[in-house]
Amino acid sequence: MSDGIAQQWVAYDEEIVRVGQGVCQYLDIQFKLKRIAWRKSSPFLRLGSDDCLFVRGRGKLALPWWMRGRLKPEEWRPLMTSSLIYNRRLVWTFPLDLGIVLIEMVVLVIVGAGLFFPSFGAPGFLLYLVILFGPFLQQQFSQINKKLRLKADTEASRLVGITTFLGVLEKIDALGMEDVERTKKRRLSRYFSSKPNLRERIQNLGGS
Q1: Closest CA to 83 of 33, 120, 134
Q2: With contact defined as beta carbons under 8 Å apart, do 62 and 83 qualify?
Q3: How far apart are CA 115 and CA 124, in angstroms?
Q4: Which of 37, 59, 91 delimits the end of a domain?
Q5: Are residues 58 and 147 in the same domain?
Q6: Residue 77 contacts by C-beta under 8 Å, 6 or more apart in sequence?
Q7: Closest to 36 in 3D by CA, of 72, 61, 8
Q8: Domain check: are 101 and 142 in the same one?
Q9: How confident is the model at residue 161 (pLDDT cuts 50, 70, 90)?
């Protein structure tokens, strides 16, 4: 790699850092962003083409390496804004949906105890609890998190502009990245995913 190209990448990363610092300041979030970490997706850090993650305690912004250069530095702003709103604000809230799920769980445990324990004893009741607290609970919490992420997009769009945010999402969609196309084809698994796919994010903001 020539020195000229290397300097271009350095300048690109530095501009993204400046944009990220501006987002943190605008949202009044204490985060000392120092550098960009371009990462491959892994079991420990799952990043999609439309993702970004502010890494606490390290002053880093993790971005998908295959998206480097595909968006202008300023185009990362809507994604950063949504990520910070979700991870620093909404994820700590107690949404109404969560309260309803907890009430449902209490009711289902009581009903299950009355139905399964007399007929099938402790083993049957335990199996019922495994099913209840396994797939059912995972699906419920996944959908709650997905709604919170979409809510973060909505709130971010009010700050950066719906047209601007939609333009970035649609630009990513037009790239036809493998991970984006794969998530579009999810069927049953999408009900257990806590992250909306790109098409869901676009539709949430009123796009087609």
Answers
A1: 33
A2: no
A3: 10
A4: 91
A5: no
A6: 19, 22, 23, 160, 164
A7: 61
A8: yes
A9: very high
Write down the number of H helices and E strands in the chain. Answer: 7, 3
Helix (H) or strand (E) segment spanning residue 36? strand 35-39
Give phi and psi for 37, each to the nearest 5: -115, 110
Query: Model confidence over 24-82: pLDDT tens digits?
Result: 999 999 999 999 999 987 777 789 999 999 998 789 999 999 999 999 999 999 999 99
The residue type found at 32 is K
Q: Is the pTM of this model over 0.85?
A: no
Shared-domain flag, residues 109 and 48? no
Q: What is the pLDDT of residues 82-122, one digit of tens each?
A: 999 999 888 766 556 656 666 766 676 677 666 666 766 66
Residue 132 belongs to domain spanning: 93-204
Place of tokens 């185009």: 75
Q: Give the pLDDT score at 16.
A: 98
Please name the residue that has the structure tokens 């991970």.
179
Give the Å distances, CA to CA, from 200 to 72, 97, 108, 151, 179.
23, 19, 31, 12, 14
Question: What is residue 123's predicted lDDT score, i.e. its pLDDT?
Answer: 72
Q: How many CB atoms lie within 10 A of CB 4?
A: 7
140 and 97 co-located in one domain: yes
Q: What is the enclosing helix (H) or strand (E) of 60?
A: strand 60-64
